[in-house]
Amino acid sequence: MEFGYTTLALRSMFGTNNGIAGQVLVGFGTGADRRIAPSAAKLFCTEMVGRVADLAVQVHGGAGYMKEIPVERIYRDVRLLRLYEGTSGIQRLIIGSGLVRAALATP
Fold first, then answer.
1. Is 85 labeled as catalytic in the residue annotation?
2. How far apart are alpha carbons 35 and 27 in whole angstroms?
3. What is the mean pLDDT of residues 84-93?
4. 66 lies in which domain range?
5. Looking at 47, 68, 72, 85, which residue is catalytic?
6. CATH number of residue 55's parent domain
7. Rounded distance, CA 28 to CA 38, Å?
8. 4-11 contact pairs (CB < 8 A, 24+)
9. pTM score, two decimals?
């Protein structure tokens, strides 16, 4: 079981993303949270998929950077996910300002 740790890490990352997405959908559907939770989910999931892609390239070693290997394309495409619908930095600002706004609104 040479890649036991890698397999366990990838399964853990996938399970966490699924749980977050489900919680955000419920909050968004009820109108309870349409700003902070979606931004937090987008930030977490895109950062996590970045880690997964990085791990995949690392598992493939130097071949992970070659265009003939599908992991190379995945690595490049995943980087763009951090830019769509607001960069990770913008998502952090949305989350922070939303939490400050919520704290100030609480009596």
1. yes
2. 10
3. 88
4. 4-105
5. 85
6. 1.20.140.10
7. 8
8. 6/55, 6/59, 9/55, 10/52, 10/55
9. 0.70
